[in-house]
Structure formats: structure tokens, C-alpha cells
Amino acid sequence: MDYKLVHQEIIEGKPKEVDFFDSILAFPSSDQLIKFYSLKNLETPKGSFLSNDKYSSCFFVENFLVVRENHSIALMKPDGTVSRVKRKLAASHLHCGRMIFVKVKDDATISLGAILCDNPEVILWKTNTRIGQFRICKGETLFATGYLKKNLVFCVDVNTGELIWQINLKQTLSNTGISYSECSGICGVYRKKLVLSTKGIDGIICLDPLNGEIIETWHDLPTGTTLGPQQSTVLPNPAHSVLHEEAGKILGLTGYYYWEIDLQTGALQAQDCTSGFKSRRLRAMTPPVCQGDHLYFSSDEVFEKPDGTLGHDIKLAAFNWRTRQIDWEWAFDHPGEGLYQIGMPKVHGDYLAAADTGGQLHLFKKTS
Fold first, then answer.
1. What are the b/e assignments for 304-313, b being 16+ CB within 10 Å?
2. What is the DSSP letter of 91?
């Protein structure tokens, strides 16, 4: 597998995440301007969007462009007209049909609400509780954690906002003798299993999406398996995990370590890749992005130069989770002074993109 660098552009202002929409690449060129490039013709901008306020992200809901700004939501219709609503978005890329989700403030309470792109002034519904991280799974159901109390997990009907169930994760798991403290990530739903990562005591748990009951938990590595110089026997950083629905697995990659859970059999495997990663000066710093057989990640490995000073190898890489090998890597020139890192990559079809802390966008296209 190989990728070719096909486009680089200096991004003015604070770099933010790039994103793909079908055949369109979108990225910020300043705090208030988003550019769109057709992937078929990268030399010609497809368009741009000027925001009245600093924005944090953008996404498409069918033909509507939704821009998340500091103090409002901007919606650009297919005809180019823009309308704004003075409400904050609750998520940067979450929607169900033409429904998008917003933070609704009433007095001192901030709850989750739903609006339609066609009529954004009308709130379809709102919850009675503050919700933090959330995602839609299987179309009709939204799963969420508490805003501050991340040990709380909710299941909400996306059409009505009705609370279907709620559990206190810390309390529920302590009854099993496992003292997990809070949810660090909602991975998704595989068949009849809602998969969450936890921290406090790092682990992966599966809940029944219909009622929130615990189905299965993972924390300890298989007997005889250890990771790193400390010979750790527990899962390393489950927050760096992703659900691979086609394979029916949870895949994790962090630092020099890889692990996977087969959600059909419950089998957990882990591998210490320190030797192979260090020989290539690789260390997985960002949560992996999964496509097919590969986990894509940003790397920052510190090494000692011949003169005794420390250097950094800054790279993007693709780890083949089936063969447990690195199939591709790309090294960036470190400017020499200050912090320089590559952000979390985004993958879409044959394209791979990432922005760096120096303010530059890097776009790659798969060639083989």
C-alpha cells in the first residue's frame, strides 16, 4: 500500500480538523473561513463559507451545510442562502435525517434538544438532563453520558427525546466487584451490544442497548500476556479504541501496543509492538482511524541524535491490524523549534488528510 502527497496548503489562523463530505474536502483557512475543494480538481476551490463568528467545525446534513460557531449555528441551504440560530451545537457531526442536535439553555439549565434544518427556530424536543458525549446508534436511538457525571449513561429516543433508560455505571459495575469510574467513549453498537470504553480502571464494557444491563466486561489481558517494561497485565488506554463493524471487533492502538476484542467470541488478544515500532521510530499518539484492514494514526517518537541532543520523528502511519505490520508511513520535516505535531488523520475512500500545528494541510491519495 502506498499514498502520494497530492496537496499542501498553509492554513491561516489556528489549525482545526479537516473533513470530507462525499467528493469534497473541507478545511479552515482562517478562524472565520472554510474552504471547499473538489477531490476531482484540487486546484480549483469548490467554494467557501464565511462565518460571522469563530467556528469549531462543520458537517453536512443531506444538502445542508451546518457550521458550528461559538454562539450560533449557521445553516447554508443548497441555494447558498445562510440562516443562523442563536444556539450552540451539542455535537460536531451528529445528525439523524434532517434532524440535528443542539444545546438548549433555559435559565441556568443546559439540556439537549433537536431541530430540523428546514425550520431551525423550532425545537422539536429537549431532554430534562444535561448530556455530555453522545452518538446515534442504529438510527432511532441515541446513547449519551452525563455532562459532568460521566458515570451516568443514557438511552434516548431520537424522535421524541424520551429517556428510555438510565444507569449509573460506577454503581452498576461496583455490584460486580469492578470499580470502573466513568465512561470515556461510546464506541457504538454491534448487533445487540452497546460498547463503551471506561477509565478509572481502564476497560471495555458491553451493555444491552434495550435496557442498559451489563453483558460483558474486559480489563485484564489474557494469562501470560504482558505489555511494556512494567509488564502491565491490563488493557492499555481503551479510549484509543474503535469499533470495526464488518469484522465484529473492537480494535485498539496506543503508544507501542495493539489489542483487539472479538465481540462474537469475547476473545481478547494483545501485542507488544515496541520492537517493530521503535525500529521505525513510531509511536501512536492519536486515537486510530479505521478503514478496512488499517488503523491510521499520528506518531511522535523521541530519539537521541549523534550529538546527544533529542530529536522528534513526526509521522503519519498505517498499521495493518490483520498482519500486525506497518504498511505505510510518511515523515514530516520538523521545523526545529517549538512544538510540532500532526493532528488526528481523516480517511475517506482513497484520500487521507491531516493538519499540523504549523498551520499546514497535508492531503494524500492512495496510489496502490
1. eeeeeeeebb
2. -
Cell triple for 35: 474552504
- Sign of the alpha-carbon torsion through 37, 40, 42, 45: negative
CA 312 and chain centroid, separation: 25
**What's the pTM?**
0.89
Element (H, E) at 171: helix 169-174
Closest CA relative to residue 353, chosen from 283, 289, 280: 289
CA 157 to chain centre: 23
Concatenating the DSSP letter of every residue in 115-168 gives EETTBTTS--EE-SS-EEEEEEETTTEEEEEESS-TTEEEEEETTT--EEEEEE
Put residue 191 in one of left, alpha, beta given phi > 0 → left and psi -120 to 50 → alpha.
Answer: left
pLDDT in tens, the chain (368 residues): 999 999 888 876 555 667 787 788 877 777 677 777 888 887 666 667 777 667 667 788 877 888 877 777 888 877 777 888 887 777 766 778 888 888 887 766 778 888 888 888 888 998 877 777 777 776 688 888 877 677 888 899 988 989 999 988 877 777 665 666 678 888 999 989 999 988 777 789 999 999 999 899 898 999 999 999 999 999 999 989 999 999 999 999 999 999 999 999 999 999 999 999 999 999 999 999 999 999 999 999 988 888 877 778 899 999 999 999 999 999 998 776 667 888 889 999 999 999 888 778 899 999 98
331 in Cβ contact with 315 (< 8 Å):
yes
